[in-house]
Amino acid sequence: AEETLILVKPDGVARGLTGEILRRIEAKGYRLVDLRLVDADRELLAAHYAEHEGKPFYEPLIEFMSSGPTVAIRAEGHRVIEGFRSLAGTTDPTTAAPGTIRGDLGRDWGLKVQQNLVHGSDSPESAARELALWFA
Ligand code: GTP
Ligand code: MG
């Protein structure tokens, strides 16, 4: 079956929302295959976010993702990549639809980077690449 990488980012872990986010993933019907708490170092984050290098939010993003532990999840299910992106909602938590993780639990804190609680791989290629990084 298809697999994806889901991250509960440091804001989600710090706010105690890991359980609520895992609950939503499981309630949707996806299976947790593997899960770990990671203090991501710069090397891992630079590889994970290589596509954003040079953008104005890149440095704040790496700093934010280094600010505390992240929960990395290997999840499985038919169309889980698309399905989790839908559960997560759009990138900006202020306008993400209610009913989604970002829309229900997130907001803009006026910082240089959008703290939006979760990450989900956006394609099968990204999922394979990101799972290899976080579950090396
Ligand atoms: P991920 O699942 O985390 O990859 O989110 P995404 O796919 O919805 O967004 P994207 O990959 O485009 O950007 C990665 C992360 O960078 C986002 O989750 C935000 O934390 C941050 N980010 C993206 N775009 C912006 C932006 O325009 N402004 C700011 N301040 N942060 C951004
Ligand atoms: Mg992305």
Supply database-style keywords:
136 residues; alpha+beta; 7 helices; globular; binds guanosine-5'-triphosphate; binds magnesium ion
Description:
Keywords: ATP-binding, Kinase, Nucleotide metabolism, Nucleotide-binding, Transferase. With 136 residues, the protein is an alpha+beta fold. The protein has one domain (3-134): Alpha-Beta Plaits. Helices cover 41% and strands 18% of the residues. It has helices at 10-14, 18-28, 42-48, 58-65, 80-88, 101-105, 124-134; strands at residues 3-8, 31-38, 70-76, 118-120. The longest helix has 11 residues, at 18-28. It is globular and about 35 Å long. Residues 57, 61, 91, 112-114, 116, 119-120, 122 line the site of guanosine-5'-triphosphate.
Q: Which CATH architecture would you pick?
A: 2-Layer Sandwich
Q: Which value, in Å, is the CA radius of gyration?
A: 14 Å
CATH class: Alpha Beta
Order of helices and strands: EHHEHHEHHEH
What structural class do the secondary elements suggest?
A: alpha+beta
Secondary structure tally, helices: 7
Average pLDDT, rounded to a whole number, is: 97
Beta-strand fraction estimate: 15-25%
Question: In this structure, how is the largest beta sheet organized?
Answer: 4 strands, antiparallel
- Spans of 5+ residues with little confidence (pLDDT < 50)? none
Task: Give a nutshell description of this structure.
With 136 residues, this protein is an alpha+beta fold. The chain has seven helices and four strands; from the N terminus they run βααβααβααβα.
